[in-house]
Amino acid sequence: MAPKGQEQNKIEDLINPVAYKSNLQALNFLRNFVAVVAGIVVGICGVVGWHGFIYHFLAQLSCVVAMFLKGCTNPTSYFATWNNLLFFGVFSSTTLLSYILFWMIFYNVCHVF
Protein backbone atom coordinates (compact mmCIF):
# COMPACT_ATOMS: atom_id res chain seq x y z
CA MET A 1 0.00 0.00 0.00
CA ALA A 2 1.42 3.36 -1.04
CA PRO A 3 1.74 6.25 1.43
CA LYS A 4 -0.98 8.87 1.32
CA GLY A 5 1.24 11.49 -0.33
CA GLN A 6 1.97 9.19 -3.26
CA GLU A 7 -1.74 8.42 -3.76
CA GLN A 8 -2.44 12.16 -3.96
CA ASN A 9 0.23 12.57 -6.62
CA LYS A 10 -1.37 9.81 -8.69
CA ILE A 11 -4.76 11.54 -8.56
CA GLU A 12 -3.22 14.87 -9.55
CA ASP A 13 -1.45 13.20 -12.47
CA LEU A 14 -4.81 12.02 -13.81
CA ILE A 15 -6.24 15.56 -14.06
CA ASN A 16 -6.16 17.01 -17.57
CA PRO A 17 -4.88 20.60 -17.13
CA VAL A 18 -6.71 21.93 -20.20
CA ALA A 19 -10.06 20.47 -19.12
CA TYR A 20 -9.49 21.59 -15.52
CA LYS A 21 -8.77 25.15 -16.65
CA SER A 22 -11.86 25.10 -18.87
CA ASN A 23 -14.02 23.94 -15.96
CA LEU A 24 -12.70 26.71 -13.72
CA GLN A 25 -13.31 29.30 -16.46
CA ALA A 26 -16.88 28.08 -16.88
CA LEU A 27 -17.45 28.29 -13.13
CA ASN A 28 -15.89 31.76 -13.02
CA PHE A 29 -18.12 32.95 -15.88
CA LEU A 30 -21.19 31.57 -14.11
CA ARG A 31 -20.23 33.27 -10.84
CA ASN A 32 -19.64 36.63 -12.59
CA PHE A 33 -22.93 36.39 -14.48
CA VAL A 34 -24.84 35.54 -11.30
CA ALA A 35 -23.12 38.40 -9.46
CA VAL A 36 -24.25 40.89 -12.13
CA VAL A 37 -27.83 39.59 -12.16
CA ALA A 38 -27.99 39.52 -8.35
CA GLY A 39 -26.62 43.07 -8.18
CA ILE A 40 -29.32 44.25 -10.59
CA VAL A 41 -32.08 42.52 -8.63
CA VAL A 42 -30.87 43.75 -5.25
CA GLY A 43 -30.47 47.29 -6.60
CA ILE A 44 -33.99 47.33 -8.01
CA CYS A 45 -35.39 45.95 -4.74
CA GLY A 46 -33.73 48.81 -2.86
CA VAL A 47 -31.59 46.87 -0.43
CA VAL A 48 -29.12 49.11 1.39
CA GLY A 49 -26.29 48.52 3.83
CA TRP A 50 -24.48 45.34 4.71
CA HIS A 51 -27.61 43.26 4.12
CA GLY A 52 -26.90 43.37 0.40
CA PHE A 53 -23.83 41.21 0.83
CA ILE A 54 -25.97 38.43 2.27
CA TYR A 55 -27.74 38.28 -1.09
CA HIS A 56 -24.40 38.13 -2.87
CA PHE A 57 -23.35 35.06 -0.93
CA LEU A 58 -26.77 33.46 -1.41
CA ALA A 59 -26.47 34.07 -5.14
CA GLN A 60 -23.00 32.52 -5.16
CA LEU A 61 -24.39 29.53 -3.27
CA SER A 62 -26.99 29.19 -6.01
CA CYS A 63 -24.09 28.70 -8.45
CA VAL A 64 -23.22 25.47 -6.66
CA VAL A 65 -26.84 24.34 -6.95
CA ALA A 66 -26.85 25.27 -10.65
CA MET A 67 -23.70 23.24 -11.26
CA PHE A 68 -25.30 20.22 -9.58
CA LEU A 69 -28.44 20.62 -11.70
CA LYS A 70 -26.33 20.93 -14.83
CA GLY A 71 -24.81 17.55 -14.19
CA CYS A 72 -21.87 18.04 -11.87
CA THR A 73 -23.15 15.54 -9.30
CA ASN A 74 -19.61 14.28 -8.74
CA PRO A 75 -17.45 17.42 -8.44
CA THR A 76 -14.22 15.46 -8.07
CA SER A 77 -14.64 14.41 -11.71
CA TYR A 78 -14.52 18.04 -12.86
CA PHE A 79 -12.60 19.85 -10.09
CA ALA A 80 -9.63 18.85 -7.96
CA THR A 81 -11.51 19.30 -4.67
CA TRP A 82 -14.93 20.26 -3.36
CA ASN A 83 -13.46 23.59 -2.26
CA ASN A 84 -12.96 24.61 -5.88
CA LEU A 85 -16.64 24.16 -6.60
CA LEU A 86 -17.80 25.82 -3.39
CA PHE A 87 -15.39 28.73 -3.04
CA PHE A 88 -13.58 29.36 -6.34
CA GLY A 89 -14.25 32.98 -7.31
CA VAL A 90 -16.67 33.80 -4.49
CA PHE A 91 -14.33 36.33 -2.92
CA SER A 92 -12.58 37.40 -6.12
CA SER A 93 -12.42 41.09 -6.87
CA THR A 94 -14.19 40.60 -10.19
CA THR A 95 -17.34 39.05 -8.76
CA LEU A 96 -17.54 41.28 -5.69
CA LEU A 97 -16.89 44.50 -7.57
CA SER A 98 -19.26 43.57 -10.38
CA TYR A 99 -21.95 42.85 -7.82
CA ILE A 100 -21.38 46.17 -6.05
CA LEU A 101 -21.23 48.12 -9.33
CA PHE A 102 -24.54 46.83 -10.66
CA TRP A 103 -26.14 47.02 -7.22
CA MET A 104 -25.26 50.72 -6.92
CA ILE A 105 -26.11 51.59 -10.53
CA PHE A 106 -29.58 50.06 -10.40
CA TYR A 107 -30.26 51.36 -6.91
CA ASN A 108 -29.46 54.88 -8.07
CA VAL A 109 -31.44 54.56 -11.30
CA CYS A 110 -34.54 53.21 -9.54
CA HIS A 111 -34.51 55.02 -6.21
CA VAL A 112 -32.43 58.19 -6.50
CA PHE A 113 -32.96 59.64 -9.98
UniProtKB/TrEMBL annotation:
Any single Pfam family the record assigns to this protein: EMC6
Transmembrane segments: 29-49, 85-106
Main localization (coarse): endoplasmic reticulum
One of the GO biological process terms: autophagosome assembly
Keyword ATP-binding: no
Keywords from the UniProt entry: Endoplasmic reticulum, Membrane, Transmembrane, Transmembrane helix
Cell location: Endoplasmic reticulum membrane
Coiled coil: none
Domain of life: Eukaryota
GO CC annotations on file: EMC complex
Membrane topology: Multi-pass membrane protein
Family: Belongs to the EMC6 family.
Name the UniProt record assigns to this protein: ER membrane protein complex subunit 6
